[in-house]
Amino acid sequence: MSDEFVTIQSVGRKGLLDQLKDLNGKVSPATIKGIGDDAAVLKGRDGNYTLLSSDTFVEGVDFDPSYTPFTHFGYKIITASISDIYAMNGKPTSVLVNMALPNRLSVKMVKDMYLGIDQACKKHEVELVGGDLTGNHNNAVISVTTYGEVSEEKITYRKGAKLGDAICVTGDLGGAIAGLRILMREKKFWEQHGDQAVQPDLEDYKYVVQRQLMPEARKDLIEALEEQGIVPSTMIDITQSLINEVTEICDAADLGAYLYQAALPIAIETRHVADEMEEDVDKYALFGGEELELLFTLTEEQVELFAEHFKDFAVIGRITPKEEGLMMQTAEGDVLSFDDLS
Amino acid sequence: MSDEFVTIQSVGRKGLLDQLKDLNGKVSPATIKGIGDDAAVLKGRDGNYTLLSSDTFVEGVDFDPSYTPFTHFGYKIITASISDIYAMNGKPTSVLVNMALPNRLSVKMVKDMYLGIDQACKKHEVELVGGDLTGNHNNAVISVTTYGEVSEEKITYRKGAKLGDAICVTGDLGGAIAGLRILMREKKFWEQHGDQAVQPDLEDYKYVVQRQLMPEARKDLIEALEEQGIVPSTMIDITQSLINEVTEICDAADLGAYLYQAALPIAIETRHVADEMEEDVDKYALFGGEELELLFTLTEEQVELFAEHFKDFAVIGRITPKEEGLMMQTAEGDVLSFDDLS
After folding, report:
1. Given this model, what pLDDT does residue A231 score?
2. A138 to chain B, closest Cα gap in Å
3. Does one domain contain both B107 and B223?
4. Is A135 a residue whose pLDDT tops 50?
5. Alpha-carbon dihedral A143, B13, B237, B144, rounded to 10 degrees
6. Which of B7, B31, B39 sits opposite A106 (nearest CB)?
């Protein structure tokens, strides 16, 4: 067995996924799209499609309870999960939450988590319909499954961007990573100075900390698109990073992209944090994850029409031929390949 | 905050669940049945209902890799999960598998797990349509979400047993716990004697070990019921124990039960293990978990009709008035309350 002692670590997540891609059980004609998009797409009711997606959140990997209030965390696992349904232009209706929790957690912590879940579900008109609670020895591991619907005419896949399309993004970028930087700094401060120290005031960083701890899923975009009868040619939510998701939609469509650095929407609060940390705020915007903003593509005509009705989005580039690659024009006018950016 | 330092351990799983039961987000009219049955029931396509269920499997709690081959484990997480759909008299069509895995696992282990998943999915005509792979520090935590369908006329809830119904169970009972006993003994032997020792031969215990490591979900019962046009008044799969599940269906229907100990179906292999361990095999049958056998109730007429076409089930008791409680007639003719059994 030549692969007997190859660890996951040595091949990485992507290497592992490549080796597993044909093990999908019985492929069913009722499956429109299986693994490989934000959500799985199944034949649903009344000619609609059913969307199914699931995500896992691991204590110590995806969240750190030392600076994450449990209500916020409960809220975030829901918004992060239903964001996958919005990214298909769908409407989430139900979630299942599976928690494997260590006994050391207090009942209040778990209740707080469910309060956050409840709050996010109410805001997004989603029902918690199931799941389970089991024990774990060391850390909390939580999986959320989201169920939603979308009509066949409205569904947006990762694939679908067209040559010449405008690349659009909701909200602003880099806020979540800016919030994380602040929280990590405070944690370090606290570890060094202990209980005796005056607790740092996070009030000045409220916006970015909120972006990290309680990011909002962009239901408003999906509703505005529906009202205007506009279907983007592709859509994806920003969970890894802007650069990663632009690469994803271009690879899926076999096309290139040309971004304008000057057009990246960045909040003033995010700029302040980057300044304070003496870091490049554009790096936050390009490489920061967990934004839950939606990246989507529209024709120029659609952009004009849509901008009259929905304000909270920016055009940050356009879709180009594959041969032109993945490029960004800097504020100074230089043109860099994505590969040169990091 | 009076409940600030109350740990999960001190209130237990049920105590915790009680405190969470109203935090379900926005309750939707499209939800037929939310938390509290084997699966959630949503309005589905073509007048059918959609079934959604999820389960978590924790290394060190729900499985021990020192005696669980990864292919078997992959198989079991699928059969255990789709068993919840069968328990609603439904047909599972899709699963999502979320794995949080420590880096120490080898690629082969993960591949083996997916081979088992693939095998179970093919056998049950289910497709793996999504999920994710993330890291965990210490142990593997795996969640499986199952999606299925059932028509409105055929769905069986936990609630529904009728006075006078026969209590039926598929297959035989106690095999999974017998298998666990053997595996635990072998593990202890191995820990005491190390690599130098001759590996114990498990061939004699093949049946019970298989019942523990690769239990089969009872698709055959669901198909036979459909062929005969029979819908049980209630159905549940045996995951905790026979006693627990009989109590569940009686509580849900506000009725009692009278079991016949002599009627408990027990395989000869299971009896041999109990003899060897000098334990009471009926205790295995009454209190053993993870059987994946289906417990269901039929009228006497349905039993007669059904028994002509489907052989692998036994009538183990009948549904009685609530006032008569939960009782079992022993082989010696004594009548004991469930409370006196353990």
Report:
1. 98
2. 7
3. no
4. yes
5. 10
6. B7
One DSSP character per residue, A23-60 reads --BS--TTEEE-TTSSSEEEE-GGGEEEEEEEEEEEBT
Task: Please give the residue of chain A at the shortest CA–CA distance from B118.
Answer: A25
CATH number at residue A260: 3.90.650.10
- The answer, for A128 touching chain B at a CB cutoff of 8 Å, is yes
Domain with A100 in it: 8-151
Structure-token match 């900390």, residue found:
A209
Mark which residues 200-259 of A lie under 8 Å from B by CB.
Answer: none
- In this structure, the answer to whether residues A145 and A177 fall within a common structural domain is no
Burial of B275-300, coded b for 16+ CB within 10 Å and e otherwise, reads: eeeeeebbbbbbbbebbbbbbbbbee
DSSP B139: S
- Among the partner residues B13, B40, B130, nearest to A35 by beta-carbon distance: B130
CATH number of the domain bearing residue B106: 3.30.1330.10
The answer to whether B316 touches B265, Cβ cutoff 8 Å, is yes
For the cut 60, the answer to whether the pLDDT of residue B1 exceeds it is no
Chain A residue with Cα closest to B104: A7
On whether both B142 and B280 belong to a single domain, the answer is: no
Which residues are bridge partners to A168 per DSSP? A296, A315
ipTM for the assembly: 0.78
- Domain check: are A71 and A202 in the same one? no
Question: How far apart are alpha carbons B292 and B21 in whole angstroms?
Answer: 26
Chain B segment 14-33 residues within 8 A of A by beta carbon are: 15-17, 19-20, 23-28, 30-31
Question: Domain tally for chain B?
Answer: 2
Q: Are residues A293 and A324 in the same domain?
A: yes
Interface of A with B in 144-173 (CB under 8 A): 145, 147
**Final residue of a domain: which of B121, B151, B181?**
B151
Question: Which residues contact residue B64 at a Cβ distance below 8 angstroms, ignoring those fewer than 6 apart?
Answer: B187
pLDDT digits (tens, 9 = 90+) for B30-86: 677 767 677 888 887 677 899 999 999 999 888 888 888 899 999 999 999 999 999
Residue B75 CB partners (closer than 8 Å, separation 6+): B116, B117, B119, B120, B214
Residue-wise pLDDT for A223-245, tens only, equals 999 999 999 999 999 999 999 99
The reported pTM is 0.85
For the cut 70, the answer to whether the pLDDT of residue A200 exceeds it is no
Alpha helices in B171-232 (DSSP H): 175-193, 206-213, 219-227
How far is the CA of A11 from the CAs of A214, B2, B107, B220, B238, in angstroms?
33, 49, 8, 40, 39
Out of B3, B52, B139, the one facing A137 most closely (by C-beta) is B139
CA distances for A78 relative to A115, A290, B149, B167, angstroms: 11, 13, 25, 40
Terminal alpha carbon distance of chain A: 38
Closest by CA to B288, choosing from B229, B220, B233, B342, is: B342
> What would the two tokens of residue B334 be?
């004594």
